[in-house]
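Structure first, sequence second, as always.
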């Protein structure tokens, strides 16, 4: 009996000790030591570590992507710059000069000079200053007139003339002449170059033309008339003249040039009045000097073959308001 009671007591004590040991195993220093919980914690830690690694890897990848993007953008900018450099550069064309803007009007049946001038907002002076008009009251259908883009005159540079000479003569600034005619360097103005002088009026009026009568500078036959010749314009008439023949002034006036001028050879230019000049070219000898006054019929030169010439002859021009016109419209025997 006593023995059974002892065994029962020992068993109860064992159960109590076992339960106490199990309870202590649940918490050690406040930390969970249960195996299944430990597995859960370890799994959580692994996931957190994976998250940190993923975040770090993402940061690295993002940085690399950013670097690659910057590099790609830089490369594209370089390529675009290279393409821009290789692209053909379009040059801006300079504005057209006034002479390049000249139009040609063909006269219609019933039209008058005043009709044409009004149509283009010009005045009669501008038509006279650009065209050879021998009779204002008798223009014919099909006749062509140059139409200037502005009011003024069409002027051809004569031998011995400079930009400052023309500027002073017509009281127009040299800068205006250069700008209107696209002249970069005034010192390179060419003989026979056509320019437009803005707002300048003809010095020789239509009535002056009718009153003006010039004598023939030499009494020989005409070998080449005024007009188109050999694919270009011949601005005077050529007279046959054996070497050394006397050349006479077509009217009284003042010598404005006497000397050598390129294709003209030895040349004399006389101003008879404002807006009216005569030119005598290819001479062998010049007998007058600049600023000298001459009389009508006075011998001013001896014929020759100087300059661009195929044989001894006289090239004779009549210049009206700085522009050559047909001499036969002004010569009278």
């Amino acid at each position: 009996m006593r023995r059974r009671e002892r065994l029962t007591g020992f068993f109860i004590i064992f159960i109590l000790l076992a339960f106490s040991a199990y309870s202590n195993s649940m918490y050690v220093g406040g930390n969970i030591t249960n195996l299944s919980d430990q597995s859960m914690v370890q799994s959580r830690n692994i996931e957190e570590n994976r998250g940190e690694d993923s975040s770090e890897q993402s940061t690295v990848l993002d940085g690399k992507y950013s670097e690659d993007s910057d590099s790609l953008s830089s490369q594209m900018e370089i390529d675009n710059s290279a393409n821009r450099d290789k692209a053909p550069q379009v040059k801006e064309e300079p504005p057209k000069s006034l002479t390049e803007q000249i139009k040609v009007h063909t006269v219609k049946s019933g039209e008058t000079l005043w009709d044409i001038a009004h149509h283009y907002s010009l005045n009669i002076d501008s038509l006279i200053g650009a065209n050879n008009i021998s009779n204002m009251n008798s223009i014919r259908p099909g006749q062509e007139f140059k139409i200037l883009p502005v009011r003024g005159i069409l002027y051809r540079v004569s031998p011995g003339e400079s930009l400052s000479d023309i500027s002073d003569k017509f009281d127009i600034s040299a800068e205006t002449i250069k700008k209107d005619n696209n002249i970069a360097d005034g010192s390179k103005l060419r003989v026979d170059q056509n320019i437009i002088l803005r707002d300048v009026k003809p010095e020789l009026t239509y009535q002056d033309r009718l009153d003006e009568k010039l004598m023939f500078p030499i009494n020989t036959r005409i070998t080449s008339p005024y007009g188109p010749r050999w694919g270009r314009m011949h601005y005077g008439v050529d007279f046959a003249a054996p070497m050394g023949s006397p050349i006479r002034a077509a009217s009284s006036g003042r010598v404005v040039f006497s000397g050598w001028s390129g294709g003209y050879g030895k040349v004399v230019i006389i101003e008879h009045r404002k807006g009216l000049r005569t030119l005598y070219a290819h001479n062998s000898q010049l007998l007058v000097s600049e600023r000298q006054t001459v009389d009508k019929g006075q011998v001013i030169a001896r014929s020759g073959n100087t300059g661009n010439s195929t044989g001894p002859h006289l090239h004779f021009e009549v210049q009206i308001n700085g522009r050559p016109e047909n001499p036969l419209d002004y010569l009278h025997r």
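Margin note: Residues 209-329 form a domain with the Glucose Permease (Domain IIA) fold (CATH 2.70.70.10).
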